[in-house]
Design goal:
Keywords: Heme, Iron, Membrane, Metal-binding, Monooxygenase, Oxidoreductase, Transmembrane, Transmembrane helix. This protein is α+β, with helices and mostly antiparallel strands. It is built from 22 helices and 14 strands. A hairpin with a 2-residue loop joins β9 and β10. α15 crosses α18. The structure holds protoporphyrin IX containing FE.
């Protein structure tokens, strides 16, 4: 027991001694205490499991569909192996079975061939649901999953209110970017390089843009920015942390995971900041000449009236949307910065286009962003080669689905498609798919009649990184705006390179099918001599 006392002592100030000395060698538990502890743990376990089952669909349909499993077949070993080597198993499955079905992560995921895309993409959520898959991914984290249902208000408001009005937001977002880019990217010298962590820069800029469009009053509030970052990053990690556990342990693991405490704490903090603000807006609505803010919070407040939403539910809906808008866009911006460093030969071409378009449109506008076709193509190539996930088109089959050739996907199947492998398949994306061709899509858009397809936001059977049809990201136009504005502002004002000018892209790490860019990679920036010339 010596080491117990030593470890107590090690946290005390030097020279002091522990005031309580516990002699563990004489520490005995009576049989009645042991029985009480076992009963307590059993009751707690029963409560945790039944609580979860009462509120979630149980997903086990893949066991009823016969397809080869790539990797270990045992559920726990399969999941662990997929956690460590996801890219390897997906590549192997696609190489062997791209036109049929295969499973990865034991029986967890059924990978469906691309030939069924169109019929699956048009199915209603009552048959094939993205939301049930998302709820499953956040395993029993009710502060997140409570407001995620098919036809969720937040998704409808993204589609119906925020996306059509994205153009209205552009000047306000640009004002923030112009003001804060020099703060987040303090490279003031035209001769010396300044090194900045790429992911940190991406995180700060993405969240500034999101906050401007989500809650006007808090767009410059540092505490709010940090709360939104904490919420989305704990939520993102929670998904990974819980996935590896055997199903029967997930409810307990989820209750005790620091990631779920992090989400709950951030939600409590956001609630404190947002509820008074919502009350204030409602009071102002009663005054004459009040003009409601054009932001996502307002859309959720207005839409929530018909849903009978409480103010707290409105806050939950707002915060849950950060899970979509935060991590994937941050990762995409970091990957873009890396690609600009590796493929520096595109920088001047992209910059020329940006300057030409902004000159024509007198600054940043919705149309100007749509006209940045070379940047659009570069972004899509960056996403094709470094997507956030190697799988997509994530959905749960809610009632038996009979496919055109008679194949039946049983109720409860969890399906995905091998989106990265599809993007890298020469049959789908043309020759040399492994080569980064920043103008690949731009060239395709020059073909008569194809000017409006092959865009970053256009999903197709060879471009599934935002999903497709009804299984699709409603925030992709928002992401398109954010990414173009951040990149354009950086290219207008700074030179960039990897430290020392090397051209080696840092290797991504993977967890399951998720690709994470190297968190520590820095990019060096230097102020351009002509940075002051363009005042948009
Ligand atoms: C580059 C950035 C982004 C990527 C790669 C991305 C990707 C995706 C994907 C793949 C899905 C699910 C569809 C599937 O599994 O195939 C999805 C869903 C979703 N995304 Fe995004 N997304 C991005 C940015 C955003 C932004 C900026 C927002 C919000 C402003 C957003 C909001 C959502 C929401 C709410 C869902 C769930 C849709 C539903 O409930 O029906 N995403 N996203």
């Amino acid at each position: 027991m010596d080491f117990v006392n030593r470890s107590f002592a090690s946290v005390l100030p030097e020279g002091s001694s522990p005031s309580v000395n516990i002699d563990f060698s004489t520490f005995h538990l009576s049989p009645s205490v042991v029985t009480t502890i076992i009963c307590g743990l059993t009751l707690f376990y029963w409560w945790a499991i039944s609580r979860a089952k009462a509120s979630r669909d149980f997903i086990d349909g893949n066991y009823n569909f016969d397809a080869p499993i790539i990797g270990p077949k045992n559920p726990v070993l399969g999941r662990l192996a997929f956690f460590r080597n996801g890219p390897k198993y997906i590549a192997e499955g696609y190489a062997k079975y791209k036109d049929t079905f295969f499973k990865v992560s034991g029986n967890d995921l059924l990978i469906v061939p691309n030939k069924y895309l169109q019929e699956l993409a048009s199915m209603p959520p009552e048959k094939l649901s993205l939301n049930v898959a998302i709820v499953d991914a956040f395993q029993r984290l009710h502060s997140i999953t409570k407001v995620i249902t098919d036809h969720s208000l937040q998704t409808r408001m993204l589609n119906a209110r925020l996306t059509p009005r994205l153009g209205l937001q552009v000047p306000a977002v640009q004002e923030q970017f112009k003001k804060y880019l020099p703060v987040e990217l303090p490279a003031n010298s035209t001769t010396e390089w300044t090194s900045v962590n790429a992911l940190h820069l991406a995180r700060r800029m993405v969240h500034r843009g999101v906050a401007t469009q989500f809650v006007d009053e808090l767009k410059e509030n540092e505490e709010y920015l940090q709360t939104a970052i904490n919420y989305s990053e704990h939520g993102f990690k929670h998904n990974f942390a819980i996935r590896v556990f055997p199903d029967f342990l997930k409810p307990i693991a989820a209750q005790f995971s620091p990631t779920s405490w992090g989400v709950d704490a951030a939600l409590r903090k956001a609630t404190k900041m947002l509820i008074p603000l919502i009350h204030n807006r409602r009071a102002l609505e009663k005054t004459p000449d009040y003009k409601k803010p054009e932001d996502f919070l307002q859309y959720l407040m207005d839409g929530g009236i018909g849903e009978g939403d409480s103010d707290f539910t409105t806050v939950q809906r707002l915060m849950v949307t950060y899970l979509g808008s935060g991590p994937s866009t941050i990762i995409a911006v970091a990957q873009l910065l890396f690609d600009l460093c590796v493929h520096g030969e595109y920088v001047e071409t992209l910059r020329e286009e940006i300057i030409q378009v902004l000159t024509e449109h007198n600054g940043f506008t919705h149309t100007a962003l749509a006209e940045m076709k070379k940047l659009d193509s570069f972004m899509r190539e960056s996403q094709r080669l470094s997507p956030p996930t190697l799988l997509g088109f994530n959905a749960i089959v809610r009632e038996d689905v009979v496919l055109h050739d008679g194949t039946v996907l049983p109720e409860g199947c969890h399906i995905q498609m091998a989106t990265y492998a599809i993007g890298m398949d020469p049959e789908k994306n043309g020759p040399n798919p492994e080569v980064f061709d920043g103008m690949r899509q731009y060239k395709k858009r020059q073909v008569k009649g194809q000017g409006n397809i092959h865009r970053f936001t256009t999903t197709a059977d060879n471009n599934l990184h935002f999903g497709h049809g009804k299984i699709v990201c409603p925030g992709r136009f928002f992401a398109d705006h954010s990414m173009k504005m951040i990149t354009a502002n950086i290219l207008l004002r700074y030179h960039l390179q990897f430290p020392g000018g090397h051209k080696q892209r840092p290797a991504n790490t993977s967890m399951y099918d998720v690709l994470i860019p190297d968190l520590s990679t820095c990019v060096e920036f230097k102020l351009r001599e002509d940075a002051g010339r363009y005042n948009w």
